[in-house]
Amino acid sequence: MTATLPADMQATRFDAAGFEALLAARPGEPAWLTERRRRSWEAFEAAPWPSNKDEEWMRTDIRLFKLDKFGPSLGAAESIVGEQPLLSNGVELGGRVEALNGVATLSELDEDLAAQGVVFGGLGEAVTCHSEKLEKAFAREVVSPTYDRFAMLNDACWTGGVVLHVPKGVRIEKPLHAIARMAGAGASDFGKTIIVLEEGAEATLLMETASTDAESAGLHNGTIEIVVGRNAKLRYVNLQNWNNRTWHFAHQKAVVGREGQLQWTIGALGARLAKVNQRVALTGADAEAQVNGAMFTQGKQHLCYNTHQHHEAPYCRSDLLYKNALQDHSRTVWRGMIQVDEAGQRTDAYQRNDNLMLAATARADSIPGLEIEADDVRCTHGSTSGRVDDTMIFYAMSRGYTRQEAVRMIVAGFFQQVFDRITIDSVREALGEAIGQRVQDLPNQ
């Protein structure tokens, strides 16, 4: 499906005039937010773009990226009929949010959750209805608004996103769901997601992205900020499924407090080029984080994910597993770091990245790292890369499977370790099906 952008968006770009037009289109925003936007815009104008001379960008070339080909979303967005979401299929939800080109088009929340003080909906509307609460959330700066030029641009020009705030002791049994879609050539999504679980709270949030057609070039520049309070528990699934002509840039960070638990699962299937920084900071004693990643690339896709497990307090545990499968001339870059501060005694941390090469022309870069200042820790890492064993394909074909069916079985088995960590059956099945549909027949080697 294709869509036509509003005339005001077609004429607006990310320049000084476009920024002022964006502010003028949001007259109801609180003064503190407008001032923050202006500070970030000034920083953006003064900062250079990242280059391959920067360590975290030396394997990701963005010289073909042209910001002036895209424009910010102004005004309200019209809801369109797109493909059905993958993650919520067959799931009884407690609430849902839908957005188009970075602007919310639908927001629903069960009445009993709203009565308990739960806030869940589009961020653009929430900043006016819950200004004081969100001012405190922005002030935390979980993601630094000055980290790089992309972070500055997002902080200045975000138009929507999702907010989830769960009060102390509230446990949400039904999953919540949010989907962000992009439509039309030159469209952009500048989403900002803020998730806060207070002490003893519990929630499951499923988020995904989608493009309404396969041909329109788009730009996503987003941030995700997560705060898991003391003894709180968050299960968070984030599926990136843009089309293969979308530029995807994101800064994502979670802060986990004392005895808090976070399970964070990422699926990365789409984007022409993706550059994502994913960080988890364990700031309270006995905090725990499990990070799961499943990446599948094809064509000339380039996906770069930098992960960071930061142990700031004692007795914390982190476990990261990323699995990547690559076809055609695609490329993945994974840079992982376990950082343990001097205060992080008795840390137990692990990180692993496995790569399944489905073509001789694909390339996977894996760079694990450790930075440890404590002297009583257990920190390990590992990485593997390899091709599909022809004997496995032959064995499956001898049992009546076609060659492509055999390859799909092998790919499914490769990702099974990640899928087994997902506690929601429908999500596990949806990710497996989405990857399976992309698997091509292997050439004879």
UniProtKB/TrEMBL annotation:
<comment type="similarity">
    <text>Belongs to the iron-sulfur cluster assembly SufBD family.</text>
</comment>
<dbReference type="Pfam" id="PF01458">
    <property type="entry name" value="SUFBD_core"/>
</dbReference>
<dbReference type="InterPro" id="IPR037284">
    <property type="entry name" value="SUF_FeS_clus_asmbl_SufBD_sf"/>
</dbReference>
<dbReference type="Pfam" id="PF19295">
    <property type="entry name" value="SufBD_N"/>
</dbReference>
<dbReference type="GO" id="GO:0016226">
    <property type="term" value="P:iron-sulfur cluster assembly"/>
</dbReference>
<protein>
    <submittedName>
        <fullName>FeS cluster assembly protein SufB</fullName>
    </submittedName>
</protein>
<dbReference type="InterPro" id="IPR045595">
    <property type="entry name" value="SufBD_N"/>
</dbReference>
<dbReference type="InterPro" id="IPR055346">
    <property type="entry name" value="Fe-S_cluster_assembly_SufBD"/>
</dbReference>
<feature type="domain" description="SUF system FeS cluster assembly SufBD N-terminal">
    <location>
        <begin position="31"/>
        <end position="176"/>
    </location>
</feature>
<feature type="domain" description="SUF system FeS cluster assembly SufBD core">
    <location>
        <begin position="183"/>
        <end position="414"/>
    </location>
</feature>
<dbReference type="InterPro" id="IPR011542">
    <property type="entry name" value="SUF_FeS_clus_asmbl_SufD"/>
</dbReference>
<dbReference type="InterPro" id="IPR000825">
    <property type="entry name" value="SUF_FeS_clus_asmbl_SufBD_core"/>
</dbReference>
